[in-house]
Amino acid sequence: MEHTETTFSMPRIGDKAPSFTAVTTQGEINFPSQFEGRWVILFSHPADFTPVCTTEFITFASQEEKFKQANCDLVGLSIDGLYSHIAWLRTIHEKIEYRGMKNVEVKFPLIEDITMEIAKKYGMIQPGEATTKAVRAVFFIDPKGIIRAIIYYPLSLGRNFDELYRVVVALQAADAFGVATPADWRPGDDVIVSPAGSCGAAQGRMEDKTLDCKDWFFCTKKLPKEMVLEKILKK
Ligand code: BEZ
Question: Considering the entire predicted model, what is its pTM?
Answer without folding.
Answer: 0.95
